[in-house]
Structures are given as structure tokens and as C-alpha cells.
């Protein structure tokens, strides 16, 4: 709920900035159309920036050095199998 509120406020704030900076008169259909186009382009840019930041963050080395996620999962499976075998006995 909080995240959606923050996103809505961000979008509203951006729309207000576009309206005030461009001086749109929203009673004119032509300005309404230009506003819609500007907002769409802005949201497209925001989406691209979020994607770029996410891709950058994914590529960063978050795990400690010399640690393999695959080996960790293998160990967990082994422990799970041992636990299951002990429960079946």
C-alpha cells in the first residue's frame, strides 16, 4: 500500500511539473494532447531508467568471494535428503 502511494505521488508530482514548466492550458484539447504525449514519454524514460538501474544492480557482486550458490543449494538438498531418510526410518 505504501509503495503504490509513493508511486502515485511521484507520477502526480511529475505531471504537475510538466504542466507548470510547459505552461499548458488544460482547457485546450491541443494542450491536453501534448500533456498526454509528454507524460507518456516521461514515464517511458522513467521505466528505462528503472530497468538500467536494476540491470546494473543485478550485475554487481553481492555474494562473498569464493562462494558458489550452486554448491550451497547442493548442500541444502543433501541435508534435506538426510532429514527425509531419517524421518522415514
Give an account of the 3D structure:
The radius of gyration is 25 Å and the shape is elongated. The chain has 89 residues and is mainly α. Helix content is 81%, strand content 0%. The chain has helices spanning 2-22, 29-59, 69-88. The model has no long low-confidence stretch (mean pLDDT 88). It starts with a helix and ends with a helix.
Helix and strand element order: HHH
Helix content: over 70%
> Span from first to last CA?
48 Å
How large is the share of residues in beta strands? under 5%
Which structural class should the secondary elements be placed in? mainly alpha
Note the main sheet: none
Shape: elongated
The count of DSSP E runs of length 2 or more, i.e. the number of strands, is 0
Helix tally?
3
Radius of gyration: 25 Å
Taking pLDDT < 50 over at least 5 consecutive residues as the criterion, the unreliable ranges are none
Please name the defining characteristics of this protein.
single chain; 89 residues; mainly alpha; elongated
List the helices and strands and how they pair.
Elements: H1 2-22, H2 29-59, H3 69-88
Helix pairs in contact: 1-2
Short summary of the structure?
The protein has 89 residues and is mainly alpha-helical. The protein has 3 helices and no strands.
Amino acid at each position: 500500500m505504501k509503495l503504490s502511494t509513493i508511486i502515485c505521488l511521484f507520477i502526480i508530482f511529475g505531471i504537475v511539473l510538466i504542466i507548470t514548466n510547459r505552461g499548458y492550458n488544460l482547457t485546450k484539447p491541443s494542450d491536453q494532447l501534448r500533456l498526454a504525449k509528454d507524460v507518456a514519454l516521461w514515464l517511458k524514460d522513467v521505466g528505462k531508467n528503472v530497468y538500467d538501474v536494476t540491470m546494473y544492480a543485478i550485475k554487481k557482486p553481492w555474494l562473498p568471494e569464493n562462494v558458489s550458490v550452486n554448491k550451497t543449494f547442493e548442500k541444502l538438498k543433501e541435508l534435506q535428503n538426510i532429514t527425509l531418510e531419517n524421518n522415514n526410518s
